[in-house]
Each structure stands twice: as C-alpha cells, then as structure tokens.
Amino acid sequence: MSEPSRSDRVHRQIIDSLDEVVFQLDTQGVWTFLNPAWTALTGYRPEESVGHSFLDSVHPKDREAHQQLFQEVLKQPPARQRFEGRYLSRDGGERWVEMVARPLRGEDGSVQGLCGTLTDVSERRRTHDALSQRERYLGALVEMQQRLLVAQQGEESYKGVLGPIGQATGASRVYVFILHRDEAGKVLVSQRAEWCAPGISPEIDNPSLQNLPMEPAFSRWVEQLSRGEKIAALVKDLPDAERALLEQQDVKSVLVLPLRVNDVLAGFIGFDNCVEARPWAQLEVDLLSAAAGAISLELEHRQFESALRERETRYRQLAENASDIQYRYRLENPRSFLFVSRVVSDRLGYSPEEHYADPELWHKRIHPGDLPALTQLLESPQSVSNKPVVLRFTCRDGRTRWLEHTVAPVLNGNGRPVSVEGIARDITDRREVEEALKMSEASFRILLEGVTDAAAIQRDGRIVYANMALVTTLGFDRPDQLVGRALMRFVEDDLEEVPGPPPDPSGIKGMITGERRLVRRDGKTRVAELVSLPLLFDGAPAVVSIARDVTEQRQLQARLTLADRLASVGTLAAGIAHEINNPLAFVISNLSFLSEEMRRSQLSLEGSQSSNAASGTGPKLRQRAELDLAEWQEVLSEAYEGAERVRQIVRQLKTFSRPDEERLSPVDIHQVLDSVVMMAANEIRHRAQLHRDYASVPMVMANEGRLCQVFLNLVVNAAQAIPEGDAQRHSIRLVTRRLDPGRVLIEVQDSGSGIPREALGRIFDPFFTTKPVGVGTGLGLSICHGIITNLGGEISADSEMGKGSTFRVILPSLEPRTRTRAHAALPAAQPATQRKGRVLVVDDEPGVGKVLRRILKEHEVEVASGGRQALERLQREPDFFDAVLCDVMMPDLGGKDLYEAVRRTQSGLERRFIFVSGGAFTTNAREFLEAIPNPKLEKPFNEPALRQIVQDLVSRGPSSR
To answer: How many CB atoms lie under 10 A from the CB of residue 116?
Structure first.
C-alpha cells in the first residue's frame, strides 16, 4: 500500500479533531470508519466498533426505524437524510443522536454505502421532553381546576378531576384516601376516589382499603406525610408490610403526596405505576404537588362550607332555645321580618309566622310613648348600635311587657345598612320590682329593722336612719337620738397601734369599711366589722352601713392564738427537755463531784493532821490543797454556766407562753430572733446550719410574746422542711435589713423541700397545711399572718420546689436604739487521765464529756465530740475500748446511725454501747432505744449506776481478747 499523501494526512487530522462523529457504512450496515469522537459519544474505541453492524449501537426500541431508513437511503438515495435515535453507551446508558447521512458512491456512480456525522443531542432532547411534559401537566392542572370549580358536593367530585392528571402522568392508577378516626381514636384511612388507565384493574371496591388502620404497618407514611413530605419509591425497596399490600395490586412504583386541610394532614393522593418500575422525576413530583395542593384547597373549602352550615344550624337551634327574642329585620323595600325566634310567642303572644305576615306588627303593638324610639331602632340602627333601648309592648292578652333591645346594623358592600339584627330581653319582672321599690321605701326600713346586725343610713356623712340594733349597740334608747349625728363620731381607731385603711377609702362621705372599734355611750368599746354601700334612699343618694359585732369572736381568736402558741411549745417540748437536760447533767454531776471531793479532802486532812505536824509535811499538804481548790473553782464555774443556761431557757419559755398580747412596747428584733434560736436549737441542729445575717436596724413597736410566736413558728417550719441527718449541707438563715425610714425587713430562709406552687397562695389560709395528718393544725401561719397584719406589718413567702423557701416579714420601726450583747465564755477543756478501763465518750456537748471524764476518773477516758469522729476512732482500733458511752441525738451522725455502722463493720462491738440521752424526742430514736438490749441512762446521770454499768463492761474486757 502506498504511503498517504500529505493532503490525505491533513484531511485525516482534521477529521480526527472534530467533535462530531464522522462515520462510513457499507451496504450491509457495517461500520467501516469511525473517528475518535466515537469514544466520547459511546465510550467504545473506534477499532472496537468497526466491523460490527451499526444496529448493535442503536437502542433496541429504535433499531427497526433505523433499519428501515437505512434501506430507503440505499434504494433511493437522496442528497442527504437527517433523523434522530437513541444510541447505547458502554456504561449502560443511552444518548440521543442526530444522524446526518448521504450516499457514498464509487467511481462508477454506484452506491457503496453511507457516510455522514453523528451529533449528541441528548441535552436538547431532554429539554424538549421536559417542556412537553410540563405543558402536558399544566394542561392537566388547568382542566382539573376547572372541573373542581363546577364539581358538585360529595365524593363523586373526585372522579372527574383524577382522570386528566392521571393521563398526563402516564400513571396506571390515581386515587384519593381520606384519614379519619374510630371510636377509640385510632387513625384509619379509606379510599374515596380512583381513576385507572385502560387494562388496569380498579381497587375502589376493595373492602380491605376501607377503614384500613395506618398503624403499625403504615405509621411511617403518617409521620412523613404529616411533615409535608412525599413517599416516592420503587415497591421492591419498601418495608415488608408496605410492599406486601402494594404488590397485591401489581404496583411497581408509587408516589404519594399529602393532602392538608388547615395545615393538618387530612389524607393523601397516590399515583401507581403497574407497568414498569419507573422512578418519579423531580419535575413530576413538583407538578403533581400542585395538583395535591389544589385538591387540598377544595377539601378545605368544602370543610369550611360544612362548618358554616353547621354553625348556621346551631345558631338557629340556640336562637330557638334561648330565653331572649332574636330577630332580623330587613330595611330595604319591601320591609319585613327575615327571622324571629319562637320565644316571641311566649313573650308577646304572636307567633313568628304572624310577624312574617305583618311587618308593621310591632308598630301596632308598641306603647304610644315608645313609638319614636322603635322607629329609630328599626330605621336608623347605627345611631343606637350596642346601646340598650327599653320599649313597652302590649301583648295579645293586654298585659304590658318591657323589652330591652340591643341591635346592630348589617351593612352591604357600600357600607349602607340593609337589615337589623337584634336581641330583645324581657325585663318586665325587673322593672316591676324597681317600680315597687321606688313606691315603697318603708319596706326597706322594715328590712333593716329585721336585720340582727346594727345598720345606719347616712346622707352627707350624717345619720338619717338607724335601726334598733345600732341603737342598742351604741347604748342609746331611741333612734332619734342618733339621727343627725355622724357615725364616724362613734368609731375609734388608734392608727398608730392598729394599722388599717383610712375611714373613707372610696372618697364617698360616710363610707366606712373594715374592722373598727365602736365607742358606746358609756365609754366602753365593741369590735365590729363594718360594710358600707351606696344606694338611693327616699330618692336621693345615700350610704347604708351595716356593723356586725365580732367582739366575742375576736376574744375567741385571742384564746385560739394562745392555744396555738402553747401547742407550738408542746411540739418543741421534747427538744427543749433535751436542751435543759444537757447542761443540767453536768451541773448536777459537777456539784456531786465537788461534794464528794470536799468530803474526801476533809477526811484526809483530819486523819493526817497529827502525822503531818510531826513529820513536817505541812507545806506539801498546803500545795495539794491549793491544786484541789483550783479544780473546785473550775467545777463551780462550769456549774454556774450550766445553771445560767437552764435559767435562760426557762426565761424564753415563759416569755413565749405569757398571754400579754395586747400590750405593745419597743422590741429589739435581734433579741427576739436570738431567743427563738435558743428555743428551737434542737430542731435546727440535727437538720441545718444556722446563719445570722443581722444589719443595724431600729426597734419595732410590737409585743415581744407575739413576735416570739411568729418567728418560732417560721423557724420551726423551716427546720421541719429539711430532713434529718445532713445538717452540713442544709442551712437556715436569719436576715434583717432596714428597708427605708420607718420599716424593718426580717427574712427566714431555708434550703428545704419547698412549697408547691399551687399551695403557695393558700398557706396563710386557716386550717390549710402541707404537713402530714397529725403533724400540723393548719393554724400556725394563719395566726402569724393575723399577728403581723394587726401590728401594721406585712408577711409573704416565696418558694421553689427542691430549693427552699423564704418568708419575709416587714414591720413598722421606731428610732434606732443601742443594743448590747453578752456572750458567755466557753469552759476550758481539762486533760484526760489514764485509768484501768478504756472508755469512749461520744457526745456533742463538751460539758457532758468533761463530767463523764471526772465521774469515770479511775478509767482511761477519751471523748469524741460527734458521731463521725467516734466512728473513725473505732475503725482505727475496734478492740481498744471496753465501753462506749454514746449520746442518742447528735447533729452530724446520731447514736442510732453510729450503732448500725459499728454493727455492720465490727460485729460484737455494738454490745459494748451504753446510750445516754436527755430525752429521745423523735419517733425513730424512741423506737430504736426500745428495740436494742443495750443499757440506757438518762441525763442528769445516776453516778453509782453509771459507774457500776461501766465497771461491769470493763470487767468482762473486749469481746475479742
């Protein structure tokens, strides 16, 4: 073969650089040449396709058409032939290709095959198909909207709108399902309409598609459609339950779109493809979503119409059953009643039909004096709109009835009234009563005379009428002795001592309300609750005041307050006994020790007096006597301290319980709070840490006993809101502040359980309590509120569950006073001494520890100031001690908890415990002491019995030795 010429090489280079495929075919349709652009079009190299039939590269659906065109060009070759078809690519896809072909002739002019170009037109074809599809869908949407507009109400309307959209999509089946609920509230779905393509079996009569439960099989559909999302999938990819139902209907792919009414899922429209498993394109989904929106609007419109008809029916039912006459009157000619409720027959004696037949019926039956008002009511309703108009009508039986009309005009689009809607209420009975009252003021006087409470009628602040109850209450003989006097002259209010509202809170002269003291003619006072109301008396404005004597009731409340105060003392009695017994224990023990030591010293000195004189040991004895004297002085100091504490506790108890409640004097609020803390110390110490946050505040004018009662109640409540056993984590805080000149703020804060929000507004109500039955009476906070209010103060509370409560008390103050505070010195600790036995004393009271050390001085005694310290000591050397003297009630770790901890970790050691107590004042402590076999001792101690019990345990020795 000869080498190609330079011109041939240039031509070949040009052909190879083209983007279009250049080809040659022989008369059998076999590729004889393909340039490199063939690879870009199909993915095959030219050498892979050359020698093969061109039909192998054509889509199977287009091969017949290509073969026919190829034969026609060979038989009758035109100058050029252009046609489109789909070609296959190596990746399994397809490309739309435009083929331009012309005959390839030999030197003799015969057709040797075809040559031409192949151009990729896939993008152009897709754009064309999308536009065609969009036009087809839009046409279907327009037709669907037109059919919806003319569709009649009912289920049949769906059939006429599903066909166009189904034909446009090429779907096999289009259907609408509506959601509803059964009696149990379960979500069901039922098919309401369906369109099927030719050859597709309908499912509209399938009973399994009516009242179909959506859960659990189709719960995913409900969740997804409720969010406004679509369900678009091939059936083979769906979950088993969904696939099983759809495969029964030969569905290959499905598209489901939500139907929403008032933004709530009401059903769905579905599109089935039963021919091929074809996925739904996004353009199709968007256009079909518009169709779903149109059907949703139609559903919403029909629901609105149904609701409107239902409301109209309900309105007529209400109107027919109402006691008032409801009517609608047309203003345009011909004037007439459009609607009158049937109650008009009972009110006027004329039926609604008689009103419809005679538009002038009311004009004929109106009282002549009210005819102008009726004319204005019906002809110019806007002038009296929403203003009651009272008219008199003559009934069929001749009786006159008073009807109170309220009307509103109904306007047309131009704002002109076309009708009147009104309600006529029968007020005949009320007007007859009013007329009767106007005609007889004497009946009102008779009424007041029959009232057991004192009553007076005043005009311009002067009494114009007084009943006999008021005459008797004020100590007079006849009502005329009070007429002309001012009732305020008999009202005595010391606003400095008993704060209250001003005499005339409403500004009307003679208005007196609230609790007041009435001064009798003889100078004695009575407590009364006064209520004043304005009224018409003898046709002129006046004020009626009624006074109820509550003197005995207030005295009873005072006794109840005292009883509640004493009940509070009873609640704290066990704790106070414990506080008294602790200091009293070491007072008595120290005095006993002092007496014994003095006796021994006296005997020793008498017995050795002669020998000392002979041997010259006098100076040593004197030194020993001086040491003993120093110790005795310390003992006396401790005894004095204990006695002083007992005296203080008894003093506070007396202050709290004395009934001198009416006497007011300057009170140091800090002294009151300190007294309360001492009395409630045992309630606090096992539950919380107490903090005082005192500011410089002036004294308040109050009763010390009353304030003690209030704050003791608040502090005890705060303590009882905190559980026992975790005192280090909880706190009770007392805060005082000066708010502004003339007022002092006291707060009681706790970190307890808090008060429920629904109960916070009722805590000051009498007999309301959040405590368990048998724990609270429900009167404490109510009495506190009354005490503070009567002192001119305020009391309130804030609380949050789980975070605690704050009670705030605000009291009127006096000028600042100087306070001095005395603090008792703590006794100094004495060194321990070694003795035969080993004894551990566990008590949070330092004085008790010292006393026990002295009583048991023949033994080796160690003192632990709390339960946790004792537990650590016992865990270090469990076999060291012969006896453990343990207090029952301690703030950090009580005796019961220490006993249980030792029993769990060092079994046997718990049998060497001796429990001492100043009074087991909790239920748990009492039950614990009754259940265990260990010895128990009460404070103050029986020293011989104590020594004997300890000696018995020491003589046995530790259990492990």
So the answer is: 20
